[in-house]
Design a protein that fits this description.
This protein is of the alpha/beta class. Helix content is 46%, strand content 21%. It contains twelve helices and eleven strands. The strands form three sheets. Strands 3, 4, 5, 6, 9, 10 and 11 form a seven-stranded mixed β-sheet that branches. Strands 1-2 form a two-stranded antiparallel ribbon. Helix 2 crosses helix 4, helix 2 crosses helix 5 and helix 6 packs across helix 12. The longest helix is centred in the N-terminal third of the chain and has 21 residues. The chain is elongated and about 80 Å long.
Length: 298
C-alpha cells in the first residue's frame, strides 16, 4: 500500500468508493449526506496524496481512470467490511444508513413496486422514491441522481444497462352506467385523460380502432392514472388504464370494460441501472433483483 493511501482517513476512502459507485460527485454527496464541495475536496486531497488522477469528468458525472478502477477494486471490499463492523455504511444521512434512490412512473411504483420493496430492504438501507416522466428520469439515472429506474421507454443510453420486466396491457373502462351508450357509440362517452394531447387514449384508439379519436370530448385532464380511475368509478366518464390499476375495480364491478379487443395495446417497462465497474455493489444488485421479481410477479 502506498504511503499516500496509508495516510488517508476512513472517511476519505469511504467517499472515494461512494463516488466510484455513483459515477457522480453530486450523487455521492447526496448518498453520504455531505456537501458536494466537501466530497470534491476529499477526492482532490486523495489524488494529491497518491500522485495520480482517480476520476475524469464527463457530461454525465465522472468516470474512473484505470488507476481509479484498480484502487476501487482494492478498497471496496475492506470499506464495506469496515462499514458493517462499525455500523457506518457507505451512504445515508446517519451512521448505518445508505440511501438508494429509485425513480419511475408514480402509479406503477406505488401500486406494484414500493409495497413489496420497502418491506424487503437490506438492513441499513433507506429508500428514496422519485416520480416523473421517462426522459428526465433517464437523464437523472445517467447523472447519478438515481440508483435504479423503472422506465416506460427503452433507456438506450451509453453507460446504462436495462432489461424488460413488465408489459402494461391497457383497457378502456368506465362506470357501468356508460356501458349501453358505449356499445352504440363509444366516442360519445365523456373522456378522462392524462393530458391535453390524450396520448394514452390516442394510442389505444389508433391501435384498436385503427383511427384517430377526433370526436372525443375530454371533461377532465389529470396527470395521475389513480385519480382518473377514481373519477371513472364516480361515473364521470371513461378512461384508458393499465390493467394492473384497473383490475381491482373491475373485479368488484365498480368499473366495466367498454371494449374487448382481440389484442390489448401494451407498453413494455424496463428496469435500468448504470453499468458498474469491476467492483460489485451487492446492495444495489439485491434491490434491482427484487424490483425485477416484483414486476414479473405482478
Amino acid at each position: 500500500m502506498s504511503a499516500g493511501l496509508s495516510d488517508a482517513s476512513w472517511s476519505t476512502l469511504r467517499v472515494f468508493v461512494a463516488v466510484y459507485r455513483a459515477g457522480s460527485i453530486t450523487a455521492a454527496a447526496a448518498d453520504l449526506g455531505m456537501a458536494q464541495a466537501s466530497v470534491s475536496a476529499q477526492i482532490a486531497t486523495l489524488e494529491k496524496r497518491l500522485g495520480y488522477q482517480l476520476f475524469q469528468r464527463v457530461r454525465t458525472g465522472v468516470i474512473a481512470t484505470d488507476r481509479g478502477r484498480d484502487l476501487a477494486a482494492l478498497l471496496a471490499g475492506p470499506v464495506d467490511a469496515l462499514a458493517a463492523v462499525t455500523g457506518a455504511a457507505s451512504g445515508g444521512d446517519h451512521p448505518g444508513e445508505r440511501s438508494m434512490v429509485i425513480g419511475g412512473p408514480a402509479e406503477f411504483l406505488s401500486e406494484v413496486v414500493l409495497p413489496g420493496l420497502v418491506t424487503e430492504l437490506p438492513v441499513g438501507v433507506r429508500l428514496d422514491a422519485r416520480f416523473g416522466l421517462a426522459d428526465p428520469l433517464i437523464e437523472a439515472l445517467e447523472t447519478g441522481q438515481l440508483d435504479v429506474l423503472v422506465s416506460s421507454v427503452q433507456p438506450r443510453r451509453r453507460g446504462l444497462r436495462f432489461a424488460p420486466v413488465y408489459d402494461e396491457h391497457f383497457v378502456v373502462v368506465a362506470h357501468p352506467r356508460w356501458a349501453d351508450q358505449a356499445r352504440h357509440d363509444i366516442d360519445s362517452v365523456p373522456v378522462l385523460a392524462y393530458d391535453a394531447q390524450l396520448q394514452i387514449i390516442r394510442r389505444y384508439w389508433r391501435s384498436v380502432f385503427d383511427r384517430r379519436p377526433t370526436r372525443l370530448r375530454a371533461v377532465a385532464l389529470v396527470p395521475d392514472l389513480r385519480v382518473l380511475a377514481r373519477l371513472a368509478v364516480a361515473g364521470v366518464g371513461m378512461t384508458v388504464l393499465p390493467e394492473y390499476l384497473a383490475r381491482s375495480f373491475l373485479e368488484r364491478g365498480d368499473l366495466v370494460r367498454l371494449h374487448e379487443p382481440d389484442v390489448a395495446p401494451l407498453n413494455t417497462l424496463y428496469v435500468a441501472t448504470r453499468r458498474g465497474g469491476p467492483v460489485p455493489d451487492p446492495i444495489l444488485d439485491a434491490i434491482r433483483l427484487r424490483i425485477v421479481a416484483l414486476c414479473r410477479a405482478a
